[in-house]
Amino acid sequence: MSRFENKVALVTGAASGMGRASSLRLSSEGAKIHAVDVNAAGLEETAKSIRAAGGEVETTVCDVTNRQSCFDAVEACVAAFGRLDVLLNVAGIVRFSHAISTSEEDWNLQLAVNLSGPFFFSQAALPHLLESEGNIVNVASNAGLMGQAYTVGYCASKAGLINMSKALAMEFVKTKVRINCVAPSGTATNMIAAIDFPEGLDDKLMARYRGFRPMSQADDIAGVIAFLASDEARAVHGAVWEADQGVTAG
Ligand SMILES: NC(=O)c1ccc[n+]([C@@H]2O[C@H](COP(=O)([O-])OP(=O)(O)OC[C@H]3O[C@@H](n4cnc5c(N)ncnc54)[C@H](O)[C@@H]3O)[C@@H](O)[C@H]2O)c1
């Protein structure tokens, strides 16, 4: 398939997990990739893999919590490739904690990375996406659709991301730009491996979000992201696409 021939995609969170998998996936289907992450070494690994497979990639080290850096990354992309067709807001973090003892720092950081970052990138990208009739895919979470214990900041940030996407979808509904969310459940990436669980969690509450099926792999989610970002999904706008092994089904 070459659904992204002559298209340029900017991917945040591209150093790892779903961001890396999506970068490789879109590149394998013809996209030029502008890979963005705060992790320079991981970004280089992603770029190496794309180039080894014959793809074209540029990188920008960027902390998505810094508005100016987000705008600079979009400008660097357009300067390198001359256009922007797809913005994938994938960068994200999670912090587990009991609600009452959640620190101000963890609360603010999750909102900054998971919600403000995608908004800043959207602001910077939309003028270019209007020109290219492109689209945005935001990676939310099942935690944005349901209350999940011990992740109050994460849930709030992902629910915010979902409604931010819908608000943008409505503001641009008369244009050809599309804006959608993917909402994965537990997926085997560094994020899951790095979770620091606090003492005293009630596993009965946690089991609800694990669901019944095995965890997804990053590639499984990249496939859904690629579909939504492609012209095949031209009828999909303002949607939240669950990719959660049935976790939110009931
Ligand atoms: N893994 C899961 O179980 C799961 C489930 C639902 C949703 N998600 C969401 O999927 C997305 C991708 O996560 P993943 O599972 O691939 O995790 P990951 O940790 O493998 O990748 C996340 C990437 O985001 C980058 N990042 C973090 N803070 C950043 C910042 N301030 N600026 C720029 N980059 C930053 C990290 O360096 C990393 O490369 C996230 O938005 C996450 O919330 C993950």
Q: What is the strand arrangement across the widest sheet?
A: 3-2-1-4-5-6-9
Q: Low-confidence parts, pLDDT < 50 over ≥5 residues?
A: none
N-to-C series of helices and strands? EHEHEHEHEHEEHHEHE
Taken as a percent bin, the fraction of beta residues is: 15-25%
- Our count of domains comes out at 1
**Major sheet:** 7 strands, parallel
The best one-word shape is: globular
Structural class: alpha/beta
CATH second-level architecture: 3-Layer(aba) Sandwich
Explain this structure:
- With 250 residues, the protein is of the alpha/beta class.
- The protein has a single domain, classed as NAD(P)-binding Rossmann-like Domain (Rossmann fold), CATH 3.40.50.
- It has eight helices and nine strands.
- The chain has helices at 17-28, 40-52, 67-81, 104-132, 152-171, 190-193, 203-210, 218-229, and strands spanning 8-12, 32-37, 57-61, 86-89, 135-139, 178-184, 187-188, 216-217, 240-243.
- Strands 3-2-1-4-5-6-9 form a seven-stranded parallel sheet, sandwiched between helices. The protein has a two-stranded parallel ribbon with strand order 7-8.
- Helix 4 packs parallel to helix 5.
- It starts with 7 loop residues before the first strand and ends in a 7-residue tail after the last strand.
- 48% of the residues are buried.
- The structure holds nicotinamide-adenine-dinucleotide.
- Nicotinamide-adenine-dinucleotide is lined by residues 12-13, 15-19, 37-39, 42, 62-65, 90-94, 113, 139, 141, 184-187, 189-192, 218.
